[in-house]
Structures are given as structure tokens and as C-alpha cells.
Design goal:
The chain is an alpha+beta fold. Among the domains are: about 130 residues, PAS domain (Beta-Lactamase); about 110 residues; about 160 residues, Heat Shock Protein 90. It has 16 helices and 21 strands. The strands form five sheets. Strands 1, 2, 3, 4, 5, 8 and 9 form a seven-stranded antiparallel sheet that branches. A five-stranded antiparallel sheet has the order 11-10-14-13-12, sandwiched between helices. Helix 1 runs antiparallel to helix 11. The longest helix is centred in the middle third of the chain and has 79 residues.
């Protein structure tokens, strides 16, 4: 770590020494860079702020205007629908067809899903006919539930109008039987008077779902990336950042106002009908409509036109460009400092760099020496370990047959000594026959054990393959595989184990057939010895296929007991066997690996799964050989070596 920090510290020391030695020169070098940075940064900041906020504010004003125009269109339809009902109601009543009037009101609510109540009242404010819509269900309110609305502003104000004129009420919470309806239902009412044939006056009233209107406005603003809010002229929320803040003047929440939420924002809204304040844009409905409402607000409640629309961008883009510009300014300052210090360092920086390079080269050379020494030590340890394992294996495998032969010869030697004594004392025929039988058995035992020793020595020789004595020739793969073991050509089961062949014909090879036959024979014998302990039935499958143009794939697979996971990594080690009590020497698979990799120039893979092991593969063991169709060239000189 000290070496890592040494170079930066040296650079700073050199730069500081140069600054103290040549202060005026360093100042002259730094002055143009610093002047340019301090001039360009404020100008760029101002222009970026202007370029970003201008379209943002324009977009916010567009959202306010669109929301106002949407409300205007909706209130215009409400006015026209109310005027139509006020025109139609007295005519249907004059015909005495109140049932037809009920059908008309019902059809009207079915056609206008935004309305939740249609009614007509007499001159005293008593409801005479009322049809409600709730959650898509339309029903007539029975006579006993009809209410007296005398004193309600939407009724009293409508009485003073002429037929055809429309009064629009404030947007507030609906009140039923003197209590605020639950759940809360924001409502905007349109009422219009009409004259009956007997000279009496009536009023037609249509209630508009306020929630439907407000949610549509909010969703359209959200599509443009803004949050839309609606504020009462007295500062109470209608659409609020928190749902509990809305309708405070009706729900006894006098402190839930814009003034408490953001006093500076409310002061700005009080100073002018429309404008901007930081990330907020606002306008009253009347200011946003700019007189396009015609006679819509002529007889409306004054608070309706003074409703204030507020929009706020939830994630203002200004923070992003400010962060980027601040980062660029910081980067520019660092670059200026770097250039100035680089000019000041001069030759000292180059000398320091050369010194670091020399130190690095020395460190690399030392690390390389240590690495080579470690590699040599590992190679030596590996050779000694392999040699020790080989010597121990040879001694262990040859000790048993040699001891048996020695015991047989000792028995024969004792028999000869007894025969000499018996000859001097007078040899009988029965004694001679006993000696001959004993001598024959001892010779037979010694001969068998010495043959076993010779076979072991021959297998030890196969561990180190002598390519110089191998014959390379062209042949067809299927024929050579069938010659690997006579049992393959017979095709019948071996000790209850079925042999299956799947050999692709016509695969021409140019390699060493003898070692290839030995590999297949060893794998077949290994499967018969280890895969099926006992008298169980099973199957061994030998298959051969082309693997591309230059390789073949040979598989020897069984469905036996499989190899334990702890044994699988060691199966190719010499003298490693789990069947030593059944004649296994632990050299078969090691010889297979040596031949496949060193003689045939291929590779061998093994996969195995036992019953109960995790995985989805088949139970059993499969050895896969990948062998080139043309064996690699053997070395020109290679002496046989016995391990």
C-alpha cells in the first residue's frame, strides 16, 4: 500500500517545489485557464437553466390550460344537458305522463355515466321526482325519501333565473339529509328553472360526479409527467398531495390549506391569478379560460371560476443537468490544475516516472525468480510423490504372489529333505507317492504365482507406453472394436449381463488399433467387475459415432450401481481400486487414460450416478472417448520406459 501511494505523493512534492521555485511562471501558465473556466461556467449555467426551465414551464402551463379546457368542455355539456331536461320536464308533466318523465330521467342517467342524480323540485324546494345512479345501478327514490332542499344555494339561486339560464354550484361534498354523504362524493350541480302550465315554477337539477372529473384531470396531467392539484379560492385543497388534506372546510380541518403547506407558494398565488413559483405553475380557471367560456359562468357560483389549478413536476430535470454541469465544472477545474502542475513539474516528473519504471522492473524480476523456484519445487515434489506411489503399489501388488511362490518352494524343500531321510532308512512306495503328490502341488502353486507375477510386471510395463513398438495403420473402427473382446462378436449375455452394440459403419481410422482394442477391453472388463456386484442383471452398451469430420466418439455405458462421488475423482490414479479382494490391481483405468491421452491423442470423460444421488441423468456409469480419426505423429526418438 505504501508503494501505491508513493508515486502520487512524489508528484505533489515535485509540483509544490516547482510552484515555490517559479511562482510567477506558474501563475502566468494558470491565469488563462482559470479565467476561461470562471467566465464560461456562469454563462453556461445561466443558459442551461434558461434552456431547461423554459420548455418545462411551458409544458406546465400547457397542462394547466388543457385541464381548464377539459373542465370547460365538461361543464358545457352539463349546462346543455340541464337545459335540455329543464325544457323537457314541463312538457312531459303537462301531458300528465309522469311515468314517461321517469323513463326519460332513467335513460338520461344511463347515457351519462358521469351523472349520479337527476331531479325536479317545486317552487317550495321539495323534491317531486328523483332518480339516482350508484355503482351502475339506477333507481327511483321513493316518495318518503324525497327531501326538502329549501335554502340550498343551488336551488335558491336557480329560482331567480329565467327559463333557459343555468346556475352552476360550487364543487363540494354531497350532502344528504343534512349530513355529508359517506363515502365522500364530490359533486357539482347544475340547476335551471322552468314554468309549468298553471304558472307555478319548478327547478331541474343534475348532479355531476366530481370524482370522475377530478381523476380524469389528474390522469391526463400524470401522462405529461406532472402532478395536478385543485385548490379552493380560500386555499383549501380539493385535489391534495395527501388525500386526508382535501375538503378541509367541510370536514373541520381548517389547518389543511396551501398556506400551511407552502406559505411562499400561497403568497405567490395571492399576488396574481396565474404564474410560476419554483417547480410549481398555477392559474385560476377563469384566467386559464381567457373568456372562452361564453355565458357558462354568467350565473355560476363565483368560487367556481376562482378555483385554482396547480401542477408540479415530481422529478424536475433541472437537478440532473445541474449535477452534470457541476461535475463538468469540477472536472474542468481538476484538468486545469492537472495541466498547470504538469507544466510545472517538467523534467522532475519524467525522472520520477523512470525511477518508478526501474523499481517495477526489479520487482517483476524478483517475482519471476520466486515463481520459477516455486514451480521447480512443485514439479520435484510431484515427481517424488508419483515415484513413491508407484514403488509402494509395485511392492504391494507383487508381495502376495512372490510370498505364495516362496511358501510353495519351502514346502517342496522340506519334502525333499524328508525324502532323503526316508531313502536312507528304506523308502516305501506310499512315502514316495506322498512326496510326488506334495511336490506336484507345490510346483503347481509356485508356477501359478510366478505367472501371476509375470502378468503384473507386464501390466506395469503397459503403464508407460512405448510408441516405438506400436503399429499404426488404416482400419474400419467397427471391426476393430468387435475384435477387442471375443464376447462382443458373440453378442450374447455374459453372466446375465446383456451386451448391446451401436456401431456406425464405414468410419475409417488411421491410428493404433492394438491400444484402442486394449482400451475397450479394459473398460468392458472394468464394467463387468465393478458395475454389477453379485448375480444382478444389467446391460452394457458399446457405441461409436462420428464427432465432426476429424473425430470419433466412443461410449462404454452400463446401468449398474455407479461410482460413489468420493471415488470418482481418483479412478484414473494408479493402484487405486475398490475391488482388490476380487483381483483388482488399480491399473486398468490408469492404463486406459495413458493410452487415450498419450498414444491415441484424445481425451476421456466419465459421468456416473447412483440410485438416490441428485440429478436427472440415468443410473450407471458412462465412459466417453473422444479420439481423432488420424493419430498424432509419434516422436522420432522415444525410448521405452517402465514405471
Amino acid at each position: 500500500m505504501r508503494r501505491l501511494w508513493q508515486a502520487p505523493r512524489l508528484r505533489w512534492q515535485e509540483a509544490w517545489a516547482a510552484l515555490r521555485a517559479h511562482p510567477w511562471r506558474v501563475t502566468l501558465i494558470a491565469a488563462p485557464w482559470l479565467l476561461g473556466l470562471l467566465t464560461a461556467l456562469p454563462v453556461l449555467w445561466y443558459e442551461m437553466d434558461r434552456a431547461v426551465r423554459l420548455p418545462e414551464r411551458q409544458a406546465a402551463h400547457d397542462v394547466v390550460d388543457n385541464a381548464a379546457q377539459s373542465m370547460l368542455r365538461r361543464l358545457g355539456r352539463l349546462r346543455d344537458d340541464t337545459r335540455f331536461l329543464a325544457f323537457l320536464t314541463p312538457r312531459l308533466l303537462e301531458t300528465g305522463s309522469q311515468a314517461q318523465l321517469l323513463d326519460t330521467y332513467t335513460s338520461f342517467l344511463m347515457a351519462g355515466r358521469d351523472y349520479h342524480k337527476v331531479r325536479w323540485m317545486d317552487a317550495a324546494g321539495q323534491e317531486r321526482l328523483r332518480v339516482d345512479q350508484d355503482a351502475g345501478s339506477i333507481h327511483r327514490v321513493p316518495g318518503r325519501a324525497l327531501q326538502d332542499k329549501r335554502g340550498r344555494p343551488f336551488f335558491e339561486n336557480a329560482l331567480h333565473l329565467l327559463p333557459g339560464q343555468i346556475h352552476l354550484s360550487p364543487l363540494d361534498l354531497n350532502v344528504e339529509n343534512g349530513r355529508i354523504e359517506q363515502p365522500l362524493r364530490p359533486t357539482l350541480r347544475a340547476s335551471s328553472p322552468f314554468m309549468l302550465a298553471d304558472g307555478s315554477t319548478g327547478v331541474a337539477v343534475v348532479n355531476l360526479h366530481g370524482n370522475v372529473l377530478l381523476e380524469r384531470l389528474r390522469e391526463r396531467a400524470a401522462q405529461s409527467g406532472f402532478s395536478l392539484y385543485l385548490v379552493h379560492p380560500q386555499g383549501y385543497w380539493l385535489l391534495a398531495p395527501a388525500p386526508d388534506d382535501a375538503w378541509g372546510w367541510q370536514l373541520d380541518r381548517a389547518d389543511h390549506t396551501v398556506a400551511n403547506f407552502d406559505p411562499a407558494l400561497w403568497a405567490a398565488m395571492q399576488r396574481r391569478p396565474s404564474g410560476d413559483w419554483h417547480d410549481w405553475s398555477f392559474s385560476t380557471l377563469q384566467a386559464a379560460w381567457r373568456g372562452t367560456e361564453g355565458d357558462l359562468l354568467a350565473h355560476a357560483d363565483p368560487t367556481l371560476g376562482q378555483l385554482r389549478l396547480l401542477v408540479h413536476r415530481s422529478r424536475p430535470p433541472a437537478a440532473r443537468w445541474k449535477a452534470v454541469l457541476g461535475g463538468l465544472a469540477l472536472l474542468g477545474g481538476v484538468l486545469v490544475l492537472w495541466v498547470v502542475l504538469g507544466q510545472a513539474r517538467g523534467l522532475a516528473r519524467e525522472l520520477a516516472y523512470m525511477q518508478r519504471l526501474r523499481d517495477s522492473n526489479e520487482a517483476l524480476a524478483l517475482a519471476n525468480e520466486h515463481l520459477q523456484a516455486a514451480q521447480q519445487e512443485l514439479a520435484r515434489a510431484e515427481r517424488l510423490s508419483s515415484l513413491g506411489l508407484m514403488v509402494a503399489g509395485v511392492a504391494h501388488e507383487m508381495n502376495t504372489p512372490l510370498a505364495s511362490a516362496q511358501l510353495a518352494l519351502g514346502t517342496l524343500r522340506d519334502g525333499i529333505a524328508r525324502l532323503q531321510v526316508q531313502v536312507q532308512a528304506g523308502l516305501r512306495r506310499s512315502e514316495l507317492d506322498g512326496f510326488l503328490a506334495e511336490a506336484g502341488g507345490a510346483c503347481t502353486l509356485a508356477d501359478g504365482e510366478l505367472r501371476r507375477t509375470a502378468a503384473l510386471v507386464q501390466r506395469f510395463k503397459q503403464v508407460a507406453v512405448d510408441r516405438a513398438s506400436l503399429e499404426r495403420r488404416r482400419f474400419e473402427l467397427a471391426e476393430v472394436l468387435l475384435d477387442a473382446d471375443p464376447r462382443l462378436r458373440r453378442g450374447g449375455p455374459v453372466d446375465g449381463i446383456a451386451l448391446e452394440l451401436d456401431l456406425e459403419p464405414g468410419i475409417a481410422m488411421e491410428t493404433y488399433p492394438g491400444p484402442l482394442e486394449q482400451v475397450v477391453a479394459n473398460l468392458l472388463n472394468n464394467a463387468l467387475l465393478h458395475a454389477f456386484p453379485g448375480d444382478g442383471e444389467g446391460r452394457i452398451r458399446l457405441s461409436a459415432r462420428r464427432d465432426g469430420d476429424a473425430w470419433v466418439r466412443i461410449e462404454v455405458a452400463d446401468d449398474g450401481g455407479g461410482i460413489a462421488p468420493e471415488h470418482l475423482p481418483r479412478i484414473f490414479e494408479p493402484f487405486y481400486t475398490t475391488a482388490r479382494n476380487r483381483g483388482g490391481t488399480g491399473l486398468g483405468l490408469h492404463i486406459v487414460h495413458q493410452i487415450v491421452t498419450e498414444v491415441l491423442g484424445g481425451r476421456i470423460e466419465v459421468r456416473s450416478r447412483r440410485v438416490g444421488d441428485p440429478g436427472n441423468g440415468p443410473v450407471g456409469t458412462c465412459f466417453t472417448l473422444h479420439i481423432p480419426r488420424q493419430a498424432p505423429e509419434r516422436p522420432e526418438t522415444q525410448s521405452p520406459e517402465v514405471s
